[in-house]
Amino acid sequence: MSSILTSGTRFPMPPAALKISPRNEARIAGAIYVLVIVLGAYAELVGRQGLVIAGSPIATLHAIAVHQSQYRLGFLAEMLTNVLAIPVTIIFVWRLLRPVNPTLALIALVFDLTQNTINAVNAWTQFAPLGFLSGSPDVSALSLSEKAALARLALHWHDSGFQIGLTFFGFALLLEGWLVFRSGYFPRWLGILYALAGGCYLVSACDYFMALRMTVIPYVQLGSFVGEAVMALWLLLVGLNAAKWRSAEVCLDHETENKPSAASQAA
User: Fold this and answer.
1) pLDDT exceeds cutoff 50 at 1
2) In whole angstroms, what is the distance from residue 84 CA to residue 61 CA?
């Protein structure tokens, strides 16, 4: 059986009959990536921001109460994006981009999964406002204005946690864009566009945390969306140059096999 080489250690791979071609792997990642974008857009624009009434916590809580199904579907969509992002990251970054530079791919993988973990943990702040709608004794002592203020505060915390996660994601996209640019089996312009998407996320996060309130932020956020959407669609519809990917993987395997292990160097 073939194996993956990581830090001198061999991990067995499935038999050749069970392997999926790299182009199909890219298309699988692209299909899931498109679904992540669609679900994420619904969660943000419809399930959450679509029910927030600016400047009125009471009206916001009322909108959530009236449209509970819409709000709960938004929460479910967000949780699904956190789950589906894991296989996308592993296939795209570690499987498809690792032959370019394993070290940078590993760093990008960590950044990406860190973002995903932050978003998963942060999801409770979106679910929290629903607790103020029930007749639970835990909130019966609170007035309507107090419940609304706490619910709105939870949504503010969600925004902050979301931006923290996007900071890690921005750095991940910068590295992944560079790996795509250097790969040879993806077009270079695609890597530049993906890296620019990461830069846009970092600019947006900086604007949020520094309270700069730059008027160009909506266009910056659009740049992030375009960069991700183009990458997802390219993976789904085109995939990659399988022959060049296999060549890069063979070169990486030869370099790893010829590199002396730490144990042999110590001996």
Assistant:
1) no
2) 29
Alpha helices in the chain (DSSP H): 22-41, 57-66, 68-89, 102-122, 124-127, 137-140, 144-183, 188-209, 217-237, 242-258, 262-266
Cross-strand pairs, 12: 3
Mean pLDDT, range 85-108, rounded to an integer: 96
d(CA 149, CA 61): 9
CA gap 244, 248 in Å, rounded: 6
**Residue 163 CB partners (closer than 8 Å, separation 6+):** 204, 205, 208, 209
Residue 168 in contact with residue 143, Cβ under 8 Å?
Answer: no
pLDDT by residue (tens digit) across 69-92? 999 999 999 999 999 999 999 999
Residue type (1 letter), 66: V
- Nearest CA to 130 out of 73, 50, 45, 53 is that of 73
Contact status, residue 172 vs residue 108, Cβ threshold 8 Å: yes
Q: Which two tokens stand for residue 148?
A: 């609304």
The residues, ordered by sequence, that sit 6+ positions from 43 with a Cβ below 8 Å of its Cβ are 74, 75, 77, 78, 81
Q: How far apart are the C-alpha atoms of 236 and 256, rounded to whole Å?
A: 31
The pLDDT tens digits for 32-66 are: 999 999 999 999 999 888 899 988 999 999 999 99
Look up residue 139 and give its two tokens: 């909130």
pTM for the complete prediction? 0.86
